[in-house]
Amino acid sequence: GLDDFIGPPNPNVREAMHHEHCTSQDSTLFFTAINYQTRTTPRCEWYFVVDPTPAGLKKSRITESGDGQHPLEWPKEGKPPLPDKVNGAMPPGSPTKQRRNGRTLADAVPGPRQPNEMIDFEVDLNIKNGLLRDIGEEPMTWDEFIGSRLYTGPMFQKYNWVLRCIGNLRVEQPSSIITESEIEKKLSEDKVAATKGNVYTTTLHVINSACIKLGKLTSAAKVYRGIY
Q: Does a structural domain hold residue 168?
């Protein structure tokens, strides 16, 4: 299981996820996502999802010089999303546009991601949870929402890198115990997605849990994938 693969999650889930993104060795290291060329840091991505307010922007403290200042705006895509992609807002065909204070979320359209606050997604999360309860499944938690949304942004690159690296190590050393130093060395090989040994253990467990739950609401279908 996932516990054997990357270790067990921290029971203090939100605190552990915050540490993995905001106070770990790679938290303030800039990287550029390969899909939309967004230059950002794990700490910035955390606050973009959890607290996308002016106060959160200050807490993200992302500067090339590391002088503790904050940027005037959140990192944006270096190139526009593909026509069938939606970044940072609601999924296509969202069942509701209702928003707090009587406002509405715009229909999902291609364009730069927007810093929507977590409460903006409350109605849609409640709808999903209602569907899960109807089939006898546990509802999604806010921690799972955070992990899922982080994964749909630039952080996917680091999460995937961790899983690939540890998977490769286990293939190379199937009968031996993999040390932390070996994992740290492997995770530092990629200059773009290097995590300096940060495995994002609790975050990956949360994302896995969210995928299992949401998978109960989807239908099996044939998927076509292009080959370059």
A: yes
